[in-house]
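Predicting structure from sequence has reshaped protein science. With that in mind, we have picked out one protein's residues alongside their backbone shape tokens:
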Amino acid sequence: MTKKESVEQFLNSKCIAIIGVSSNPKTYSRMVYDAFCERGYNVLAVNPKLTEINGAKCYPTINSLPEAVDAVIIIIKGEKAKDILNDAINKGFKNIWMHFGCNLKNPETITMGKDINLISGECAFMWLQPVEGFHKFHRFVKGLFSQEHR
């Protein structure tokens, strides 16, 4: 499957959990959460330090999520990202997006052979339609060098 096909499959999900959502609306994780909500996705937040975001329930862990979740976006840095990825796999998620800021090296080695649609090293704003602002320009520039971003 090409990266574009992987992203399209992910974005066809009905319910997406975002792991690492911040209460601060100016952080990247919160902007991703808000953008998916604004585009009509059913989005669930996961952060053990919060109980709600904008009046919506915030789940403490990936394991506390309801079964209806189709996909997860992981926006956690370092070794915690690896643990969260393993939790997502063990919970049975088949669509997983590792934000490029996770800095987890070779996450595909963890998902290899497990029938998981893994997207890593990509910014969701580069794909979430409509692509706007700086991300639209960035996607255009990347598209000059890669067919996948067109």
Notes: The CA atoms of residues 19 and 74 lie 5 Å apart. Residues 134-138 have pLDDT under 50 and may be disordered. The beta strands are 15-19, 42-46, 52-53, 56-59, 71-74, 95-99, 117-122.
